[in-house]
Amino acid sequence: MSTSSSEFSDGSTAAPAGLAEYSRFFQRLHRRYAQDLALLPAGAPHKGTMAQAFAALQARGCDTAIALRVLRQLVMERLIRLDCDAQAPLADITRAVTELAEFALDQSCLQARRELDNRHGAPLGPDGQPVPLWVIGMGKLGARELNVSSDIDLIYVYAQDGETAGNAEGRGRISNHEYFAHAVKIIYSLVGDTTEHGFVFRVDLALRPHGNSGPAAVSLAALEDYLQVQGREWERFAWLKSRVVAPNSCIGSAEVLALRSVVLPFVFRRYLDYSVFDALRTLHRQIREHASRRSAGHPERANDVKLSRGGIREIEFTVQLLQVVRGGQFPELRRRPTLDALQRLAQAGLMPQGTADALARAYVFLRRVEHRIQYLDDQQTHVLPTRGDDLAWIARTMGHGDCCGFLHELDAHRELVAQEFDTLLGGNGKKECNGGGCGGPRAVAAPPPELEGLLEQLPAGFRERVAEWRTHPRVTALRDEARARLFRLVQRTAQWLGEGRVTGEAAVRLVNWLEPLLRRESYLALLLERPSVHEQLLHLLGAARWPARYLVQHPGVIDELVGDTLLAERFVVADFERELALRLASLQSTGEDDDETLLNLLRRAQHAETFRTLARDVEHRITVEQVADDLSALADSVLRISAQWCWSRLKNRHRETPQFAIIGYGKLGGKELGYGSDLDIVFVFDDDDERAPEIYAAFVRKLINWLTVKTGEGDLYEIDTALRPNGNSGLLVTSFNAYAAYQQQRGSNTAWTWEHQAMTRARFVLGSAALQARFDAVREAVVTSPRDPVALKAEIVTMRERVRSAHRTRDGQFDVKHSPGGMVDAEFAVQYLVLAHSARHPELVGNVGNIALLQRAEQVGLLPAGVGHAAADAYRELRRVQHRARLDEVPTEVTPPALQAEQSAVLALWHAVFGEAPILPAV
Prior knowledge:
mainly alpha; five-stranded mixed β-sheet; 55% helix; disordered C terminus
C-alpha cells in the first residue's frame, strides 16, 4: 500500500541547533520528516540500520518505491548532521551513500524479479540453468566513493541469451533480452523516478556499450565482443572502477569471475601502455572545454571543485592514468578507491610518498567541500556558492573562522593538484623537456616527414640502417599514428646524435631494439611521452653489448627508467618480497593466480630488478662487489618466493611448511653472482615422514621447472645440481643426514677433496633456523677437519692444472681468470688456506669472500706481510676487468704489460702458499 505525503510529519518538531541547521536541505528534511528520523538507528548509517528503517517504513504501509525514497531522506539528514556538526571522516559519508545505493538496487532487483517471474517465468540459459542479471556500478559507485548528490552510473549485464520458462500457466515466454530490458525499467522506476518524496538516486546508463543508442541490458557475450572490437581508450578508465553491486546474492559468485575475465584484459594490458596518454588528454580537454562553455557569461561557474583546474577530476585522472598504464604488470595497483590507489602508487615507487600524501589531503578536502556545496540545496552541483553567507557557512564547517582562510587553503590544494596533473600529462606545469621536445601533446609542431624525407635528415651510419625500413614489413604495416611516433623518435635521436649527446652505435642499436617491438605501439608512446627515458635508453644501449642484448630480450624493463630514484637506490629484499606478496594477493582476489601468471610475474619482477642493478652498474653508481651482492640477494629472494609458491601449490604436500633447505655453492654461495650466472644448488630435506623422499623429489622437480622453464617473459635462472652427493648420478634431493654423512667422510660413500673445496664457498640460502644451524655445524666440521697439508697441496695443485688445461690461453695473452696469476689461482690458494689452516685459525671458517679471506690469512701470519692485501687488491681489479669485458661481450684476455702488477701479486700469493710458481703455458 502506498503512503501519501500527509502521513509523514508536518515539521512540528524543531531541528536541533548546530551548523547543520543552516543547510536549506536539512531544514526541508526536518519540516517534512522530523517524526520519522528516529526510524534510522543512531550512528553512521550502514546497510544493517538502513534495512531496519526500510522494514519499519514498509510496516507503516509504504511500498518499495516510497520506502526507499524516505530512507534516502533519513540517511541524508543523518549525514549532514554527522559531517557538519561532528566532523565525521569522509569515508563514513561516502560509505553510507554507497551502501544506500547498493541496498536500494538490491531491493529493486528483488522486486523486479518477483514481478517479471510471475508474468514470464525465470530467464533460462541453453541448458535450462537460471540466468542472473548483474548490476555493474561504475565510477564512484564502483569505488565506494559516492558523494551525497551523486548520480549512479550503471551497466546491466546478464549471463546468457535464452528464453524465460513461462508463467504458471506456461504462457508469457519472452527472450532473456526482453526480460532484462523490462527489469531495467522497473529498477529505474524504483530508484530513479522523481515522485513527491524525490528520488533515491539519479541513474545514468550512458556508459553502457554503444552509449545511449545501445540496449539497456547486454549479454556477457555481447559485452565481450564490444570491448574487444569497439571499446575505446576512455572506456578503459570507466571500467577501471567497475564492480557488481547488485543483486546481493550474486556478488562474489563464481559466475562473476566470467565477467571479471572479460573486463580485466580490456582495462589492463599485458605490456606498458603509454598510448592512453593521448586518450586521457583528449577526454580531459573535452571536460575542460565543456566547463568553459558552461561558465561563459557565468563567471561564478568557474569555481568548480570537481571539473575546474586542480579539481577532484584531475586527482582521479592522475591516479587512473598511472593505474591503467601499469596495472597490467602490477596487479597490486588495481584498487578502485582513489585514496587506496594513491598509497599503492607510492608503495610501487610510481609517485613520491610526499606527493601521494599531498594529493590525498587535497582529495579529502575537495570532497568535503563538494559535500557541503550539495548539502545547501540537495543539488547536483560542484560550484562554490556566490552568496557570502553560504560561503561563510562552508568555511565554518571546514574548520575556518572566515572565508579568506578557507579560500586560501582551497587554492593551495588546487594549485598542487593542477601542477601534478600537468606534469604527468606534460601540460603547462613542470615539463620534462630534453632537446627533442617535451612529453606534452604534439611537442613537435610540424608533422614528421615521410621516410625519404626523414632519411635526408640523418647522418650517414644511422641513415643506412633506417633506410632498411623502406621494405621492412613491420614498418610498412604500421598505422599512420604509430608510424608518425616512430619517425619522431628517429628525428629526436638524430638531433641528439648531432649534438653529441648519444653515440652512433647507440642510435643503430635503438633501431635494432625497436624493430621487433613495432607491434607493441605502447613502447613508441612511452619513449615519445618520456624524452628522459628515450635518452637513458640510448645511453644504456650504447654502453655495452650485454645491456643491449638484455634489453632486446626483455624490452618491458625500460619501464624502470621512468622513475627518478632508479640510480640512487639499491636492491632491498624486504621491498621486493612485499611487492610480490601484494601482487599475488591481488591476483588471488580476482582468480588470476594460475601457474602461468605467477611464472610470468616472477620473471618480470626478477628481470626488472636485474635491469635496475645493470643501469646502476653501467652508470658507475655501484661497484662490482655491490653488483654481485645485489644479484646474489635477488637470487636468494627469488628462490625463497618460488619455493613458497611452489610448495603451496604442490598437490601431495603433507605439511604446511616444508622441512627443506637450499644450499648454494659457487658464485651463489660466495655471493659473487654476475649477470646471467647459473645457480649451483644442493637440495636437502629433514623430514621423518615415510612419504618425504617422494614428496620432496616432486617438489624439487616443480621448483626447478618454475625457475628454468621459458615462458613468454623468458626464464629466471639455469640450475646446476652437479655438486650434490654423488654428482649427477646422485639423488636430486637428499636427506640432510645423508648429506652430512657424505660430507663428513662417514661410511663408504664420501666426498672428494674438490667437493670440500666447493664447501668452502657453500652457504645456507633458505630453510628453517634449526636446519641452518645444523648445516653451519657440518660445514665448519668439514672445513676444519684434520688434513695432511702436503697431500692436500698436491691434490689442489693437480686440480688447478686440470682446470688450466681445459681453458687454454692464446700465446702472448693474459686471461684474467685462467692464466697463471689469474683469478682461479687466487681462488685455489684461498681454498687451500681455509682447508689446511681453519682448524687453528677460526678467522678463516666464515664464508666471507676471497678478498676478506686473503686479508685475514695475512693478519694471522699465514702469508708474508703485504702479500695477502696485494693479492686481495689484485683479485678485486681482475674481477672488475672481467666484469667490464663480459658486459661488452669481449674476450677476458689482455695484452701484457696490461695488468702485470695484478698478475705478479697473484703469482706471489701462489708461491707463498704452494712454494712453487704455477706452470706457465708452453710457448
